[in-house]
Amino acid sequence: MNIEKFCEFDYIRKKFLPLTPYGKIYKENIKLINDKKTLEYKYDAIDIFLRLRKDKRFDYDKIRYHLKNVPYINHEKKVCDAVDIFLYKKFINNYYAIYSILNKKEKEFFLLKWELDELYKLLNIDGFSDTFYISDKYDKRLDMIRREISDIISDMERKKKDFLSIIKDKFSLPIEGDFIIIESSKVKPEFNEYFNIEIYDGTRVLMKPRLPQDYIELFQKKEKKIAEEKKIENEVISSISQIIEKVREKISEYIDAICKIDIAISSAELAADLNLKRPKFSSTGVYIRGGEYLPVKEELEKLKINYTPLSFSFNKRLNIIQGSNMGGKTVALKTIIFLQIMAQYGFFVPAKEFHFIIFDDIQTIMVSDEIKGLSSFAYEIYEYVKFMENCKGHKSLLIMDEFAKTTNVMEATALLNSIIEDLSERNNIYLFFATHFSDISYFKNIDFLRMKGFNKIKYLKYFQEKKDLGITDKIKIINRFMDYEIIRVKDSKIKGSDAIDIAHILGVDIKICENAMKFMEEEYEKTKKT
Description:
This protein is of the alpha/beta class. It has 19 helices and 13 strands. It has helices at 3-6, 10-15, 21-28, 36-55, 57-68, 82-101, 104-109, 117-123, 140-171, 213-246, 248-274, 294-302, 329-344, 376-390, 409-424, 456-465, 471-480, 498-505, 510-529; strands spanning 180-183, 195-199, 204-209, 280-281, 286-291, 310-314, 318-322, 353-356, 361-365, 396-401, 429-435, 446-454, 482-489. The strands form three sheets. Strands 9-10-11-7-12-13 form a six-stranded mixed sheet, with helices on both faces. Strands 4-8-5-6 form a four-stranded mixed sheet, covered by helices on one side. It has a three-stranded antiparallel sheet with strand order 1-3-2, with no helix packed on it. The longest helix is centred in the middle third of the chain and has 34 residues, at 213-246. It is elongated.
């Protein structure tokens, strides 16, 4: 199963909202980071903007405003038209605004430079704005030719108005624009001198005023002047384009800096909204204090059920987490991985403290609901073999949830013991394995852990006061009395069972439950002797 899907990372992806096109592309292609310096840089960048958010909120909001206005530039494409120049102008203007807000130390951190004064002034020759127009100030000829065009248009409008006035007076026709539609029966022969007449439908004709020759000559003169204007504009565009081309590589560096700033400020916004904390590096194990699996926490809050954060120190490479169904094993795994990939994606994490090892690869082995037509066990084995082939030379984290649960217990236990023994000899692999199997052998580098599980005493005390609960309510209340704390145990042998207690609470006959418990205790004593 995909690691993001397993821990529902989409919860974070939906809340992580970069503001620029470059940040949005980064978001869609986010990858695991296995370089400590890169991660430190990302965490430091988030801290910079969290401080700015706290101490200089107005500046912080101004930066976000300008990031929203940053356009996408394909900096591999040559500048060739006014649209390209407009995009570069908009980018440069907003880049410079951000550059002007940050202090010297912050500029150095994000590698923000400014060496475009000449181009900046040229693009804003008519004053600062995010629009682009080929101003008369770019070429003196433009001012003169645009005046001529304006005068010609005025003459044309006057002549057209005079001509339409003659038509109205001569024929008493209500013409205002470029044509008039009248009944065919009303057409007079003398109309041909003043109109071009076309059939409109079965009973009407469309008549367009036949403007005088001096109007046509003015129109032709205007078109000629517009062509001259276009030629000069193209010369201006070419000149500006050449200047931009000379600094295009520099602008490419500016784009990289803007992307880093966007990711950092969007990550800071995420950290502030979700109360995330900076993770810390570890070389010996994974330490979590107050770790929260946000998708489940949010759902429990909706149901008004208390959420238990995860706190534990995982000191060994191989961690076997046991417990009954409903006991929280899978949620514990998801919490660990949720924190781990957030940290290795360069985010702060939902925990009071999180110390983590940097892994080159993180993989899960479990059956997805999407797997159809293939044995669940066969799929798990296939995924395991593939992982072992790909993990050579990499520091890898492997997550296994109820591996081999679909095959018989004896074979599954034998296979699991053999796999774990092999992993105990591979120093590059760390394992978190949730299982309900109780006969896992002890190997070096292994830690046996258990979910505390169902608090029967607290439940029974509550139940005595709520004897009229139905089955649905009982199930809901059982969840309230699950203790999701992880504890360390000496071995994998489980004495007692939450499942039997829960079965009795839900209505299974007491004699059946007592016999089941007796059978379990006998099996436990046998395994202790062996």
